[in-house]
Write a structure and sequence with these properties.
With about 280 residues, the chain is an alpha+beta fold. It folds into 2 domains: about 130 residues, Diaminopimelate Epimerase, Chain A, domain 1, CATH 3.10.310; about 140 residues, Diaminopimelate Epimerase, Chain A, domain 1 (Roll), CATH 3.10.310. Helix content is about 15%, strand content about 40%. It is built from 4 helices and 19 strands. It has a 19-stranded mixed sheet that branches. The N and C termini lie close together (about 5 Å). Bound molecules: 2,6-diaminopimelic acid. 2,6-diaminopimelic acid binds next to helix 2 and helix 4.
Length: about 280
Amino acid sequence: MKIKFTKMHGAGNDFVVLDAINQAIFLRPDQWKLIADRRFGVGADQMLVVEKAHGDGVDFRYRIYNADGGEVEQCGNGARAFVKFVTDKGLTDKRAIRVETMSGIIEPRLEEDGRITVDMGAPILTPAEVPFDSASLESRTEGQDTLWPLDVADKTNWISVVSMGNPHAVQVVTDTEAAPVLQDGPLIEHHPRFPRRVNAGFMQIVDRHHVNLRVYERGAGETLACGTGACAAVVAGIRRGLLDSPVAVQTHGGVLSIAWQGAGQPVMMTGPAVSVFEGEIDLPD
Ligand SMILES: N[C@H](CCC[C@H](N)C(=O)O)C(=O)O
């Protein structure tokens, strides 16, 4: 079957975006995985699907599939690409839209300077809701944050657990470039204490308004940027008393600006979204 797509990225986190309003999109996990394959397919960290909204007061529905073919709850960089896509395609004339996702409603807004700001909703901080199995672990408190000891290979990593609709394990490291992201990332992603796996964030504190961040993403491996990962990292850093809002998050793919006013408040993420090319893939049935 032939499927039209737009290749996009948000700070180097790259996407294949599909319009499921004007074409029928019902694919199996193996087909999603093939689209994401960087040699046998188009290549992407995630696939984003634009659908008609189901609920009232919502403009669109947004579904997200990781490169491993699994559907997931949220994608921050993807939300920025989403609003650029529906605007460029004339699917809306609004600059601020309400988008229904598997984990709730987010509100991306196209700014005058072309960047996009997204209300990502409030973080979820209860371990069981991340979900994270903290049974029999001795946590420690830092500021308002709870840190958990996670055995990874031959060491213990002290992590914050935060959900932005999708699960994140955030640790502070002294130097992101020296951090064992590719070695520890998959071990954290598949750690048995994360029943739905997890995105593993490695954050270096530069100063109270600047961090470096690398994320080994669930279902995609290390990406050049992770929007929800940047949100989760800043929430953890503010709760630990290490950061003050807003925070510039330097990733390998670019800078994301994250603002958060504290528990129960939404995390606001601002960053770029770029359309790279249009294409059509001939997908085997
Ligand atoms: N790998 C993530 C989904 C994509 C998130 C990321 N690309 C972002 O920008 O938030 C997960 O499995 O939860």
